[in-house]
Specification:
Blueprint lengths: L3 E3 L5 E3 H6 L8 H17 L7 H12 L3 H9 L9 H59 L3 H15 L8
Antiparallel strand pairs: 1-2
């Protein structure tokens, strides 16, 4: 997959964001996984500035069926939780799996576009290199060519052969 993880709604989570919401070693594994899944869904359904966390939690609730109060508890009090409801954890996991499946074509398209861009960049680099080599060859040839002044003097000396030379003193 590319360096970006695409969400089903066309929003993108960067790899850095995925690391931030990774499993927390201080939490129970099931709680950490549920918290990570809830955070991924929250990030995917966030609509931008002006969107409140409460509104996002309600959208996640509509999508998954997990109550918004349970999502808030996962967000705020996960360190106090020793276990997670299997039903809610399964629903969050299924929603994240659906997110990944919906994002797969987008990620594939991004990978293909990145490959095309890389190929184009390589072609441009090759063209630039050939132009630089040609210009360098011209510069070297210009250094070995007689100077223009001497060339003009040669032309003038050729013209003066046909004309009589003026006599000195006149």
């Amino acid at each position: 997959m590319s360096d970006r993880i695409a969400s089903a709604l066309g929003l993108f989570l960067s790899v850095a964001d995925a690391v931030i919401i990774a499993l927390d070693p201080s939490l129970e594994p099931a709680v950490a996984e549920a918290k990570r899944n809830a955070a991924r869904l929250h990030k995917a359904l966030y609509r931008g500035p002006g969107d409140t966390d409460d509104a996002v939690r309600h959208r996640v609730e509509k999508l998954t069926g997990v109550p918004a109060s349970y999502l808030l508890r996962l967000h705020k009090r996960a360190h106090e939780m020793t276990d997670v409801s299997g039903k809610w954890a399964r629903l969050l996991q299924q929603a994240c799996d659906a997110l990944d499946q919906a994002a797969a074509p987008v990620a594939l398209a991004l990978d293909q576009a990145a490959e095309k861009a890389d190929a184009h960049a390589e072609a441009l680099d090759a063209d630039t290199l050939s132009i630089r080599r040609e210009l360098a060859a011209r510069a070297i040839a210009a250094r070995h060519r007689p100077r223009q002044e001497s060339f003009i003097q040669e032309l003038e000396s050729d013209r003066t052969l046909d004309r009589p030379h003026p006599k000195p003193g006149r």
